[in-house]
């Protein structure tokens, strides 16, 4: 097992609730590398605006393949530390896999409310296509407790959710080939992103259907995460209106090194990778 630890020099929570878990390189893991450590520091919103600098050309980009891993992120909400998030990808048997995400509020108001989010998707890897089978979301807190479960019935051609949600969102949704859950969306981006590529997905989760379109930058750019600097590929959602989602993906790292959600031009949720473990 390899374990890499990345702490930040000034520096994820929860309302990237729809964001989520990511893939990993399906290669035999190398020998355990030495951990890299640094002290925390404050997040820099300027990173989202950093100009692109020449980096890897498309031919040198190596998207990670699917393999089990665990990644830990530090979560910031509106620039303030709020908690941490853990994402896991596990292999059950045959083509069946599972991706999980847990977000725990440990600082400030999030800690007082005891905010805790757990999401999971069971899916099959069919020749590189990720096919969701079931989905679950559990939200816990001082004044709330909600659970929603969903089933993607590909034989019947519909998906349906039950639990603590509005009646209109419990209606069956016709499925289309390539439909993704929230967590699978991130795995698909990791699989498909190439410098300069455009990606289009239909998001079907918790009784809702949305179109998600993403654009990868033509070149990598320098991204600072803690005291480590990466040549990372920026991938941005281009049809989210005032809600922006940006991921930075680095060659050789099995999960995004940073995931940023912005609202009306301001940083909202900021997840920064601090540790990952792969088999």
Fold and architecture overview:
By secondary structure, this protein is mainly β. It has one domain (2-44, 59-278). Helix content is 6%, strand content 49%. It is built from two helices and 16 strands. It has helices at residues 108-113, 182-192; strands at 2-5, 69-77, 80-93, 96-105, 116-126, 129-140, 145-153, 158-163, 173-174, 198-205, 208-216, 221-225, 228-237, 243-250, 258-263, 266-278. It has a 16-stranded antiparallel β-sheet that branches. The longest helix has 11 residues, at 182-192. It is globular. Residues 5-54 have low confidence and may be disordered.
Topology:
Blueprint: E1 2-5, E2 69-77, E3 80-93, E4 96-105, H1 108-113, E5 116-126, E6 129-140, E7 145-153, E8 158-163, E9 173-174, H2 182-192, E10 198-205, E11 208-216, E12 221-225, E13 228-237, E14 243-250, E15 258-263, E16 266-278
Antiparallel strand pairs: 1-16, 2-3, 2-16, 3-4, 4-5, 5-6, 6-7, 7-8, 8-9, 10-11, 11-13, 12-13, 13-14, 14-15, 15-16
